[in-house]
Amino acid sequence: MDRDTLVTLLEYKRWADAGTLASVRAVDETAHPEKRRLMQRLMNHIYVVDRIFQANLAEQPHGYTALNTPQTPSVEELEANLRESTDGYIAHVSAMSEADFTRTIRFQFTDGSPGEMKAIDMITHMLFHGTYHRGAVGWLVAECGGSAFKDVMTIFLRERHR
To answer: In which family does this protein belong, per the annotation (predicted)?
Structure first.
């Protein structure tokens, strides 16, 4: 996968995260408190895993001992956090050399066990992991009578070229 494709996929992620959070914001929190909280927990889980792999890519400790945080951030906090994190990935990927993508990086999982992955595999894991959970959030939004965000690459590409 080339750098430009990865940057496009990261821009798609930024767009999909924002659209998904907009659909979460539209769900009536008083009518569906448990499901709304679960939506926010899932989006925060995406953010935490994004940050873990961002630290792993930089070969820095991530500081997380779990795949979510005890507190549930607001939708507004999640919007800012996810955008900032994805912007960081875009900057990092844009500065990587071809050799950097195939470099194997050793790290620790949140349970303390050792891991190792190529940088490209970390990036693609992060991208696909978020897609999986945004899909679950979309189901929850629909269960609450809302309109799930159309997290579709073709729509992103169409809107991007307008």
So the answer is: Belongs to the DinB family.
